[in-house]
Amino acid sequence: MRPQLPLTALALTTSAAAACDRATLQAATAALIKSQTAGKTDALPLSPNITYLENDTPTPLSKSILTTPLPIDLSRSLHDTTACATFTEIIAASAPHPYVLMTRMLLSPSGTSITAIENVVADAGDWLFNAQGSLTNSKKETWDVIAEGKRDKREVIKAAGDAYLDSWADGKVKVPYGGTCARLEGGSYTTNCKMPEFPKEFKDAGG
């Protein structure tokens, strides 16, 4: 069973030259929502040489979740103008077959086309999956823009994300968890943010 992986930090890992403005990236994520709702990729400005991964597996777009029309109950996007990348959370809890999607897109340096899409697709049978719980708890979160003077530097955010993901393979990696830390895992919140080394067994997961 697949865990729902936190891809937010992954939007910071690309070294593409800064050339994308926020409006261009917002248009790309709007096109993603439109496409996923319709189950058609026509609205996406796809590169002819696009690469697509679904749950880390190369998949033809014609067989991807993008061809499944979904009623989207909640979506949120992050837009990384430095890396020409986006991250979108999509929750389709009211669908006959509920899904929770975490979608990362990379755009060309000019921002005119999408060169790569990486999708984590979670549904029934996946570890702790609960789309309605994800929807209820996600609605409680605030994703407001942080005032510029209160933002951490990009390098600080990237280092924290890298440490968190690296700790999954090496439990000795120190992660800068906050004094209070909450993790939304499969629809439930847990205050135990420390992840075990994979594939070690989870203890008190989601509790």
TrEMBL record:
Whose protein is this, by species?
A: Paraconiothyrium brasiliense
* Keywords from the UniProt entry: Signal
Asked whether the UniProt record includes Secreted among its keywords, one would answer no
Q: What is this protein called?
A: DUF8021 domain-containing protein
In the record, which residues are listed under signal peptide? 1-19
Pinpoint the DUF8021 domain residues.
150-195
Report which superkingdom the organism of origin falls in: Eukaryota
Q: Which InterPro entries match?
A: DUF8021
